[in-house]
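User: Show me sequence and structure for the first protein, then do the same for the second.

Assistant: Starting with the first protein.
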Amino acid sequence: MLNRFRTRLAALDALPHLSLLAVFVGLFASVVAIALREVVEQGQHWLLPHGQVEAFELLPPLGQFLLPCAGGLLLALIWHHLPSAHRQTGIVYVIERLSYYQGYLAWRNALMQFIGASICLISGQPLGREGPSVHLGAASGSLLAQWLKLPNNSVHTLIACGTAAAIAASFNTPLAGVIFAMEVVLLEYSVMSFTPVILSAGIGAVMTRLWYGNAPAFAVPSFTLSHNLVELFLWWPFMGAVIGVLAAVFIQLLQSVSRFSQPWPVSVRFVLAGCATGLMGVLLPPVLGIGYDTVNSALLGELTWALAVGLIVGKLLATAVALGLGLPAGLIGPTFVMGASTGHFMGLVATQWLPVGQASPIGFYSMLGIGAMMSAVLQAPLAGLTALLELTGNLHVIVPAMLVIVVANLVAHAPPFRKQSIFLEQLQARGLDHVHHPVAQSLRRIGVVHAMDKQFGVLAAQVTRHAAALMLARRPVWIVVEAEEGSRVLLQAADLARGLDASAEDATEDDVVDLLGIPAQRSQLLPIDRRATLQQGLALLQQQGGDALFVTDNPAQPQQVYGVLTQVMIEQNYLGFQRRR
């Protein structure tokens, strides 16, 4: 039964089966995301004065310095003893595994992501929990697929499901979770993936509402816009340009710190990151922690001029240094703080510059800044816009948000900055790149077990005419010939039939036929795992110069043959997929 389920998942139209799996992935991913939040909040409740979460400002200056230092030291001690393969965490790691390893994520990395992010956030590092939640959500989908030995074409969809559920559980924004999974992690929109991803995101939102209630992630006041044309055609585009420059500076600074510190031991980098955060915390305490309390203050218009400017500069520097030195936490939350502070500052300027009552509320500027900064850093305009709509519940935000977000993305991406998504920039810094090819994307959605031909027979290289005739009586299309040293050769059954007919005169049933010697067109068969996709099959044929594959459980020690697959079959399946689109 499970084998039939796996085979069905290898097809393009396996939506009911993927949707069933999406329910379990959504449940598990949202539970893990909620567990991470609970661990962080309980740890802060225990450590911080009066048990207030994110209340790092209430610590004495010595505590503001020592707590991040202690967190960095603890992480250094743990990471120093970890094998390098288990140190990789975060969204960049997820994208790398999707591009180069069929989305197979290791459970040890997910465990270290949970532990590392918890220590970072409890100790006040200026980072976020959304990136770790995405890693843990993606791992939920990947590990389920690996445990059930599902075909690889389903792994990408299940990773997207886990990502969407994690984002939905983090912000109570299911639609933004769907768009984020497609636009930021998968880096492609697949209509066939939308149904299970939407289902997982909905489950993530339901789970977080059951646990925390239906309150939004931020205290968003109701906004009444001024409909001032100066704002619409001058000030909001200018604000978008400013945020685009800040996003590009942030990405560049993070890259520079990462490149400069890369040769250093991980323990040295983590201790330095903790000390740098502690020093920044003494100078500007609101920089410590994720900063959601600061975002709420900005949305309510409660920041002063000096604090807004300090947060713009301080949060940008502290986050870039902490992430550049490799701390295992995220950057989405900090972009909210940077964006809200920048928007707040631009709103303060607007209230001084425009006539009384002509400027929109300062909190509205802060909200625009959140969406613009997040989208410019991630180069994800639709995710930023969707998040704003769900967080505000105000349709009037659409036009100004579109304007500010588009300008911010264009400025960050255009000369002289030319910045891509920060995750792609980090991936390229490792000497890697995202595999983004239309043909590869299409072939990745079909499993080899769906495309393989099961009308075959298996014969030894030397067989009697009687054995060969019995095999042909089963009407196979292909003959898999088991040659010496475990190699296999493919020939068409029609060629074997012609060979037997040509030598039928004066032949007996006990005569031996050499299947490697009769006139026929033969192809050397290469083994491929039954979980592989057509993209993997085509890549294997191109790399090793083969013409055909046989599908098996263990390519390293192939035993049973489940089917054969030629390059022509792969091309036919690709053409069929294009006709169905």
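Switching to the second protein now.
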Amino acid sequence: MTPLFTLDTPQVHLTWSFRADRVPPALPGGHPRPEAGWSVPVEPLDGTAGPDAVAAPPLWEQTDYLVFVQSRCGQPVRLRHRDPVLTAGLHTTPDGRVQHGTINFGSQVGQSRFVVEVGGRPHVAFTVEVIPSKLDYRSDYAALRDEVQALARSLVLAYLRATGRPARPVPDAADDELAWALLLRATLDDLEAALGYLARHPLWGTARQVELARPERIRRPDPAVRRAMQRAPAHRADGGAGVHGGRARWPAARHAYTLDTPEHRWLAARLHGLRRRLVALAEGERRRPGRRASAVHGELVALADRLDRLTRLDVLRAASLEDRPAAPSLRLMAAPGYREAYQACLRLQRGLALHGDVLDVSLKDLHVLYEYWCFLTLVRATADVLGTSLPWADLLAVEADGLRVRLRRGRRQTVVVSGAGGVRGAITYNPRFGGPGYLVPQQPDLMLTLTAPGRSPRRCILDAKYRLDASPAYVARYGLPGPPADALNTLHRYRDAIVDAEGRRTVTQAVALFPYREAVPGTYAAGRHARALAEVGVGAIPLLPGATQHLTAWLAGLLTPGGG
């Protein structure tokens, strides 16, 4: 074992070691291998001064690290972490003075904080940073997140185009943030036209008002008037007494026309909420660097100003704002002008509220993010090859508070992409095959089912493998780094074990998608992964942001007439 760093205080000694032969080899353009001699920044928790340190050591994912903690003061010691599974491999001696064992971060990346306890009390804390060994921490991870966000935004744009029919053309760059702002502006055109019409032709309501009136002017005395007459003498302007004489005034109810209606209250509340969201989006874009962010910020500010002008219309200014406006009424959903304003508000609200598990993936779930990205990239590439648009209806669920991306790990989800000539590609996320014909249920990550007129359906299994073997022996055998041998063996099992309802084997190809970008063009084509995929139907394809050409070429061979 090679010590990576040590931590020494008068109360405790800690050594963090690794086996040099177990550390993944450095990839081209990747991070350097961990080396001994690092100092770890420490945070004393008992009021004493801690040792000086310069920088946190880089730790690699999916690597075993041996940790040894020893007490110097005779009290029990313990290394704690907020994730108890991470320290489950540590063992403590019977007297509690020594703790040792193995820590493996798996595919979690990012900063991780540990606390050393002495005598049951926190003594010192330190933070390490786990970096991915298969892709560049700063660029590739950011590209994965950005592309997932851009693909999700493309789906929303497609949804708004299909349901909104905006009044002005929208650029084809659906994943451009400026196009997002322009589309919102186009939807605002419909909203402005609808509110302008209803401002000229408002639907009035009636409200009950109570005011003081002379007795002879009260035509229909209600119980309130009768009770007032029984309780006290009349209100006299001259201070005199008497119920009926003089200048008596009694509280009388009458009905008056008003613009403070449920319909106007609903519209006003929605407009104020939309404006607050646009202002928040604009503030976020203002903080981002670059000319594009500046242009988007200007567009969003202009949209917020237009919404602000709409909220100052007389019909909406007369409406009282409520924390929870009532549900939409039939007049709001059916009356001319109101119906169009209601639909435009819903489109804007849903377009600004996009959520779902695929967008909330944590930094520590890098393998889940890669799986999501592979699925969305496969859907987009299939649509591009077939020359059609993204199937937003299969991926978005319309909810009361916005649009939700249906994709969720562990739940089956199918997206159908239809092309010319009756060719269809159905991409299934988390398919599961089980039943009496299976001793063990089979559940690959992705499945592509191809159907075409006059041809039997064909299935292709794809597994997103965020694991990479870059050992010299592996590279010598396959020609480049790739998924481990057990992952390739699983593909053979999928191809032979998965059958259709009639018991026929319909899986024609099984592919592993792995995070790698070839340093020299042509390296992948000359390797065994590509040759085996073409010859026996089992292989692997490298896939990273900006390096999707091999997946596109493979899909083109399958989806074009006579391909595959």
